[in-house]
């Protein structure tokens, strides 16, 4: 009887916690990436009311505030929040602020091209896998603490396996500010790269995404057989920090807004990463390249 009662109590507690977590966005007073500075209490309440009632346009089916809480990497909810709050800061009514958000770049979901126009992305010295003479080059901007990036690992591996002679992958760091362990993880990957073990560290970090910490990273590095004195020095070095910043800046210039973002021969790919979705695109690129010969 005591065991059954205890399980019943635990079930209620866990269920209540899940409900509270789901409803948090409706009461939270601060949202990731949203600057409420300079707003009076009344204006902040107006802004929050708008954010809690205006639909995010990223296609998630959530309100803007809900999307900021549940998917802080979403570029749509971040941009919409900024537009709404700025409008209210300037003295506009809630209705006028919403109209301004609707008229903004992120106010509606545009029909995205599968491949954007090509951009130049510096890749010298970046970790790569696949044949050096591959006709197709994928550049991935990723974050080791990003849940979507973890799911992308198997999908990208499937692409590489399907095109062992034609596709090369280059990995670029893009740690998001909303992920507190992303920057040190990016530094750890590049420190391992200095010893020729980037991909081993890459796999380890993604496999342990929810356990990322400096202490754990040092332990994993030791298990990978890295020279720990050199690894620790590189991990904390200005050179590695600058390399991570440089990758992030390269991503910003290329139009990266979230992770993972993949470019196919310099063209940002806006579709699903599943092999059956990417295959027609890669086949088309290969056909186009063959026609140029």
Automatic annotation (TrEMBL):
<dbReference type="InterPro" id="IPR036249">
    <property type="entry name" value="Thioredoxin-like_sf"/>
</dbReference>
<keyword id="KW-0560">Oxidoreductase</keyword>
<keyword id="KW-1015">Disulfide bond</keyword>
<dbReference type="InterPro" id="IPR013766">
    <property type="entry name" value="Thioredoxin_domain"/>
</dbReference>
<dbReference type="GO" id="GO:0016491">
    <property type="term" value="F:oxidoreductase activity"/>
</dbReference>
<keyword id="KW-0676">Redox-active center</keyword>
<comment type="similarity">
    <text>Belongs to the thioredoxin family. DsbA subfamily.</text>
</comment>
<feature type="domain" description="Thioredoxin">
    <location>
        <begin position="89"/>
        <end position="287"/>
    </location>
</feature>
<keyword id="KW-0732">Signal</keyword>
<dbReference type="Pfam" id="PF13462">
    <property type="entry name" value="Thioredoxin_4"/>
</dbReference>
<protein>
    <submittedName>
        <fullName>DSBA oxidoreductase</fullName>
    </submittedName>
</protein>
<dbReference type="InterPro" id="IPR012336">
    <property type="entry name" value="Thioredoxin-like_fold"/>
</dbReference>
């Amino acid at each position: 009887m005591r065991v059954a009662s205890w399980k019943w109590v635990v079930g209620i507690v866990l269920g209540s916690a899940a409900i509270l977590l789901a409803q948090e966005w409706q009461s939270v007073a601060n949202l990731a990436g949203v600057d409420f500075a300079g707003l009076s209490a009344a204006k902040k309440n107006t802004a929050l009311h708008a954010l809690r009632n205006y639909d995010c346009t990223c296609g998630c089916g959530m309100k803007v505030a809900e999307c900021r809480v549940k998917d802080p990497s979403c570029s749509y909810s971040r941009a919409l929040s900024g537009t709404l709050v700025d409008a209210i800061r300037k003295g506009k009514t809630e209705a006028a602020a919403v109209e301004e958000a609707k008229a903004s770049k992120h106010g509606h979901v545009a029909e995205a091209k599968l491949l954007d126009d090509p951009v130049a992305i510096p890749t010298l010295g970046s970790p790569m896998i696949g044949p050096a003479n591959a006709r197709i080059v994928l550049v991935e901007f990723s974050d080791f603490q990003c849940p979507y990036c973890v799911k992308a690992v198997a999908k990208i591996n499937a692409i590489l396996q399907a095109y062992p002679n034609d596709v090369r992958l280059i990995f670029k760091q893009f740690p998001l500010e909303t992920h507190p362990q992303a920057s040190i993880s990016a530094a750890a990957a590049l420190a391992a790269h200095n010893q020729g073990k980037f991909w081993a560290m890459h796999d380890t970090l993604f496999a342990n995404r929810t356990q990322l910490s400096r202490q754990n990273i040092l332990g994993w590095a030791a298990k990978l057989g890295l020279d720990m004195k050199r690894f620790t020095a590189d991990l904390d070095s200005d050179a590695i920090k600058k390399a991570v910043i440089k990758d992030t800046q390269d991503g910003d210039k290329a139009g990266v807004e979230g992770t993972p973002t993949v470019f196919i021969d310099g063209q940002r790919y806006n579709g699903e990463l599943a092999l059956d979705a990417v295959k027609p695109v890669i086949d088309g690129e290969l056909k186009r390249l063959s026609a140029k010969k």
